[in-house]
Amino acid sequence: MQSLARSAGLVSHRLVPALGLALAMLMTCNLLNACAKMMPAFTALSPLTQLDPKHNGGILPRNINLLAFNPHRKAFHCVHEADALPVPSAEAEALFQQGLRYSDPSLYPSQREYVNAAQAWQQAAKLGHWKAQLNLADLYLHGRGRVDQNLELGVSLVEQAMQRGVADAFYFMGTLHENGLGVNASIDRAFAFYDVAVDLGSARAQGIIGKMLNATWDSPTNGFWANLDIGRAMLECSYAQGDPIGTYNLAGSVERDASDTPPPPNAEALYARALQIYQDGAKFGSLDSVDALVSTFYSPDPMNHNIADKDRAARYKALSDALYNNPDLKFPNLDKVLPLPPAQLPVWNGNKEDLVNAAKAVVTPPPKLPPHPGSSRNNTRYYVPPGMTLPTEPLEVLAYWPDKALTATKGDSRTFSKRTELQSNLTRCHMVSECSAFNR
């Protein structure tokens, strides 16, 4: 920094005073990040080159000039983020999903392989997968497992996503300013970033800011303002994009409309719509929406014509428990296993795991493996199942011949249970893709 100052002083000494002053101001700007205030405010309509330090005088995206948050805005145009971004390639999506499996919240913390997740997301990000890039940023910003915290790298990854026009990256940057994580804390800049994210199509920003504007009076200290029409439009846009938070907030807003005093003429239709939106929120993975459905059916509630339905409530409670343990779950097949009334409930064996799995997305089975070069079904003595290899060391007989284990330990229920488990695991491991998850 000292050598830079000496160099600047030497040059300015030979220039006319006015030019020397301009150079000094530019130098101060670059050092203090104050130049952003001299640049045009960035909006959703601004060219992305305005975020490039090579074209804006060296200003990092985190420091760009922004318009102040206006809770009483008069207009809002619903934009879907997916419409403005390219669909990731199959390879990038596979790497992204691989990273999710490595960091699955349902795993014990000691089982989560964050280093492997970071590697998978880094490869996916290079292929243009913006969700992988933001997940990687979050990993570095907080540091998890054996991935050390690296605030600057995390913020830089968010900035790179901003430069690509990713709406959620602007929302992410807003959260960093709100919490002072990797950047200077500023609630004003946080909400300014949220505003840009809303207009670029961030469903999460729309769902959160929409709720804040969905009020009948202003209370900035409590975080809400009177802008009902705009707030509701934002919530509808967020719901249309499948955001869990925005969907839950919209359902609550519609339910409150139905419960006004005196009741509106269309109260019954409003209750029915609120119930459907809560159901959709459950599909999107909203724990709050699922809990609202548990409450609705457990005891008499206007959304269910004041009729209790404890059987339905019990099934929603099973989904609630699953989501509590794994917030990444989604239930796109919910209507098939747990439809809203007046549809009859399908038969259920009472196993919660079966219910949860049935409500999840249908997983396409992996492609069949080619025949093992050393296998032959005509010679069963030397047959090696596809996806398996012969061990290099002798293994315990009881572990691989469960029937003999049963004979040798007849009457020992604990060993019998272990035998069944081993047999099940061996069956699973016939598919190589499943073996790695089991071994982990």
Provide an overview of this structure:
This protein has a two-stranded antiparallel ribbon with strand order 1-2. The chain is globular. Helix 10 (203-213) runs parallel beside helix 12 and helix 13 packs across helix 14. A hairpin with a 4-residue loop joins strand 1 and strand 2. It is mainly alpha-helical. Helices cover 55% and strands 2% of the residues. Among the domains are: 2-47, no CATH class; 390-439, no CATH class.
How is the secondary structure organized here?
Layout: H1 2-13, H2 17-32, H3 81-84, H4 90-102, H5 114-126, H6 130-142, H7 151-163, H8 167-179, H9 187-200, H10 203-213, E1 214-219, E2 224-226, H11 228-240, H12 244-258, H13 267-284, H14 287-298, H15 310-325, H16 334-337, H17 352-359, H18 397-400, H19 402-408, H20 413-428, H21 432-439
Antiparallel strand pairs: 1-2
